[in-house]
Design a protein that fits this description.
The chain is mainly α. It has helices at about 1-45, 50-60, 60-65, 70-75, 85-120, 130-145, 155-175, 180-200, 210-220, 225-245, 250-255, 260-265, 270-290, 295-310, 310-335, 345-365. Helix 6 packs parallel to helix 8 (about 180-200) and helix 6 packs across helix 13.
Length: about 375
């Protein structure tokens, strides 16, 4: 009888695993299709309009896509090939970099949000709710305003600001341990203080153009992004995402709770801070090039978790696909909804994320724990 029960339990586990994996495949396929459609729309419309066929052929031109020299120019030297036509120049040097930055930002925010929710075992957690984005954002705003020579290392500086904010939040929330509620409340307090300092900086800026660009950055915007932003964000994104998947097993153990993790021999606090450092670097890479784009790190992990469950590797993989699709799709709406006026993408994600978060609050009885 025991063998039958064990066999049934094993069969159910295999079925559950296969079902979650198939749902992850659906998320990946749907996200790729949305991203592809958003890319073609983003490339087609503008002051230099293209037909959908022209946009498709220009984006997937094999002479560009498979040219090592072209990619070396984009990612290393910053130049543009002399043989580019006007259409190729507009698509590859102006419109596509914006999409690539959107992909990087969406992936970073979604993955970092998932990590913070696991670390705190709190589904309300995100880089923005915990005040980390405001700490990183303050450093980025100071860099943009007073130290533009440091722009190439801005993600590192933002990571330092985010780390300081996270440490402050943790110290405030610590009282013989932490709780989800205390972490969120401490994050709100720290975020409010850092946000107030950000706004105070505007009184010390004399250049109106700097003020306008900083305002757009605070709202979260991909307007004006080019290959320079790709070069800034890409290396830090690759490092952060590789490390995030490398610690997926540790994330699964942390999700069991501190007592269980300690019983299994894990140095909980050291692992927690190391993993938090990965999430902070990922957040910093996004904030450095796109500003404070809200709600992506909060709602994308929820959407993915509802479909694939709590397995960390599947959750991170789902966020890696859905985050870019959501952000690039939102940016298409931000660019085309009130054309020729272009809204910051953070406004669109806020309009989408706010109602979804209210829906989540109404639907779930036990909100605040994973």
């Amino acid at each position: 009888m025991s063998k039958v029960s064990d066999s049934l339990a094993e069969g159910r586990a295999r079925w559950s695993d296969w079902y979650a994996t198939s749902r992850l495949a659906v998320i990946a396929l749907a996200s790729v299709l949305v991203l592809l459609a958003a890319t073609i729309l983003q490339v087609s419309f503008g002051a230099f309009p293209l037909t959908l066929a022209e946009a498709w052929h220009t984006v997937f031109d094999p002479e560009v896509v498979f040219s090592v020299d072209v990619w070396r120019s984009f990612l290393l030297t910053g130049g543009v090939p002399d043989w580019f036509s006007q259409r190729q120049l507009i698509v590859w040097n102006i419109r596509l970099p914006r999409i690539i930055v959107g992909v990087l930002v969406g992936a970073n925010l979604a993955v970092s949000g998932a990590i913070f929710q696991i670390l705190t075992r709190n589904e309300l957690a995100s880089p923005y709710v915990l005040g980390i984005s405001d700490g990183a954002g303050l450093v980025v705003l100071v860099t943009l305003t007073f130290m533009t020579s440091l722009l190439p290392v801005m993600p590192v500086l933002a990571a330092v600001g985010g780390t300081v904010a996270f440490l402050i939040v943790y110290l405030i929330a610590w009282k013989n341990g932490t709780s989800p509620v205390r972490l969120v409340l401490a994050g709100v307090v720290v975020g409010t203080v850092f946000g107030s300092v950000q706004r105070a900086l505007f009184f010390f800026i004399d250049d109106l153009s700097v003020v306008m660009s900083a305002q757009a950055w605070l709202a979260g915007s991909l307007l004006g992004t080019d290959w320079e932003q790709v070069r800034i964000a890409l290396p830090f994104t690759v490092v952060a995402l590789v490390l995030a998947f490398a610690v997926s097993r540790q994330l699964d153990v942390l999700l069991l709770g501190e007592d269980t993790a300690s019983a299994l021999g894990m140095p909980v606090e050291r692992v927690r801070f190391a993993v938090a450092g990965i999430a902070i670097l990922s957040t910093a890479a996004a904030i450095a090039v796109a500003g404070l784009v809200g709600f992506v790190g909060l709602i994308v992990p929820h959407m993915v978790r509802n479909l694939v469950g709590n397995d960390s590797k599947r959750l991170l993989a789902g966020c890696l696909f859905l985050g870019p699709a959501l952000l690039v799709g939102a940016d298409v709406g931000a660019r085309l909804a009130l054309s020729p006026v272009q809204l910051p993408v953070g406004i669109i994600t806020g309009l989408v994320g706010g109602p979804y978060f209210l829906y989540l609050m109404r639907k779930k009885e036990d909100l605040g724990s994973v």
